Amino acid sequence: MGKLTAPGELEPAERRRLLGRLAKALSEGAKRARARGAGRGRWLADVFLNIAPRIPIRDLHTLSEHHHGLTGEQLADDLVRTAQKATMTVGAIGGALAAAEFAAPPLLLSAPAQLVAETIVVAAIEVKLLAELHEVYGVRVEGSGAQRAMAFTAAWARQRGIDPLAPTSVTLALGTATKTALRNRLLRTLGRHLTTFGPFLTGAIAGGALNRVATKKLGEAVREDLRIKGPAAPPATPQAEIDPQRRRELDP
Q1: Does residue 173 carry a pLDDT above 70?
Q2: φ, ψ of residue 231 in degrees (nearest 5)
Q3: DSSP label of 105
Q4: Which residue of 149, 233, 237, 248 could cross-link 53, Cys pair, CB 3.0 to 4.6 Å?
Q5: Which pTM was predicted?
Q6: In-domain check, residue 39
Q7: Is 81 contained in some domain?
Q8: In total, how many domains does the chain have?
Q9: Is 167 within the bounds of a domain?
Q10: Is residue 241 part of a domain?
């Protein structure tokens, strides 16, 4: 999962291979869940809760280093752009695989696991984005690594930033209401990925575009929250201090 949530560091073929491996593992898990009588939504939420603590979250210093010295709003902009590219790529890969399966009907039997894998990876990328935006805006979430992961997952389910002044933001992050919100959010994301089942490459186009829009919307909502809840964001990196190549990428 760490490699799949590291945008820009994988060749498309390698990303496709890892996505396929994840789909196979999830397919086996789904069969066991069905045997136990677990509903798809509950099983999907349980899978993600097991994965969430393993999502690598970078601190502010590391983020700035990985993004060419950017800080403040420019760093937040870059994080959102990078996450959009990553979820768009996952959607496009899923759509391309679905298009291939239309040409070979027997392979459609593997399609649900593919969609679940795509959903899990996109959710993980977005939780990572949400958590790292908290670093950028100075909103520190206290607790152990597992507790923080659960708090960020709960925030993703609600598509909001975390209020650091709320005493129950971490300790009660996974109450019944939050688990229900997580299940519903994952099922909505899964439903969005059903668009990848279009003929030829229309699924790839739709899957990538919808993921990109949804990730951008999440980034905007979380940043708006964090500007209010956290300390003032540090000033943006002066243009003169940005690597010249990176400046050309950032300029419209």
Answers
A1: no
A2: -65, 165
A3: G
A4: 149
A5: 0.79
A6: yes
A7: yes
A8: 1
A9: yes
A10: no
